[in-house]
Request: fold
Amino acid sequence: EAGVAQSPRYKIIEKRQSVAFWCNPISGHATLYWYQQILGQGPKLLIQFQNNGVVDDSQLPKDRFSAERLKGVDSTLKIQPAKLEDSAVYLCASSFPTGTGSHEQYFGPGTRLTVT
Amino acid sequence: QKEVEQDPGPLSVPEGAIVSLNCTYSNSAFQYFMWYRQYSRKGPELLMYTYSSGNKEDGRFTAQVDKSSKYISLFIRDSQPSDSATYLCALRRSGAGSYQLTFGKGTKLSVIP
Reply:
């Protein structure tokens, strides 16, 4: 079974520029997540999709971050304009419901963003 | 007080040692408990999950949850150099809707041959 795919793997941009990340979840996983992981910290949820609808975006900085999941499969996360503090690894994860309701989440390799 | 506390280490042990990794949490709404392993420049990989107090074993790994103390542990027996990674505890609230995981900071483990 193929895992969660993300691209690009690395991106360097200057502050105030825009950037976009792409994610393809595991086939059949209806739920998709974007997390931000700052160096030395655990991942923090930015947004959760159920199919193509947003379930939780309470921690998404909506003045500069946006995300969409067209057709309930692939997703893109965009930052415009980027700030220095956006330097982090952006992780995409997907999950499926289990009998226990645990929704085990499977992560992609992440996109490492450096804002200079 | 942070919702999830995890000692970031680093923790260095000799090969073959038993490793104990721990997290404490403050919110009793957390009902699902997971451990992820993250190698350098990779995404987190799910190791163990449990949703009840007690122990769960999988090979060399044992996850332990004590809801009364709000304390979770991961034990690694016969540790190997390939276990060298950052270990993240992750907790989730029960109920429908958001399946947000709340992570600890992670503990960086090095197993020395």
About this structure: The longest strand of chain B covers residues 30-38. The interface with chain A takes residues 4, 6, 8, 32, 34, 36, 41-46, 49, 51, 88, 90, 92, 94, 97-101, 103-106 of chain B (CB under 8 Å). Residues 30 and 93 of chain B are 4 Å apart (CA to CA).
